[in-house]
């Protein structure tokens, strides 16, 4: 299992459809990807989960990945959410 805390940047400024694009990034990996913030925990591969989670600028999020490609998944999710 890999875990990292990040601060979300302005994803809606960099991406045309950030919710759908974030799910697409997550679905590229075999690993389970979970996003946590405050008392909410969602599956990053679920579009409904991401819509409810609504990652927005300034939000502190824990990215948790578990599986065969967890390091790559963690890096991809981090790059998307901090707009690197």
Give an overview in words.
The chain has 84 residues and is α+β, with helices and mostly antiparallel strands. The protein contains 4 helices and 4 strands, in the order E-H-H-E-E-H-E-H. It has one domain: 2-Layer Sandwich (Histidine-containing Protein, Chain: A). Strands 1-4-2-3 form a 4-stranded antiparallel β-sheet, with helices on one face. Residues 1-84 form the HPr domain. This is HPr family phosphocarrier protein.
Strand order of the largest sheet: 1-4-2-3
Structural class: alpha+beta
- The CATH homologous superfamily is called HPr-like
Whole-number total of structural domains: 1
Low-confidence stretches: none
How would you name the oligomeric state of the polypeptide chains in this document? single chain
> Can you tell me the CATH topology?
Histidine-containing Protein, Chain: A
Secondary structure elements and their pairing?
Elements: E1 2-7, H1 11-14, H2 18-27, E2 32-37, E3 40-43, H3 47-53, E4 60-66, H4 70-81
Antiparallel strand pairs: 1-4, 2-3, 2-4
Brief rundown of the structure:
It comes from Roseburia zhanii. This protein is of the alpha+beta class and 84 residues long.
Keywords:
Histidine-containing Protein, Chain: A, 4-stranded antiparallel beta sheet, 4 helices, 84 residues, 4 strands
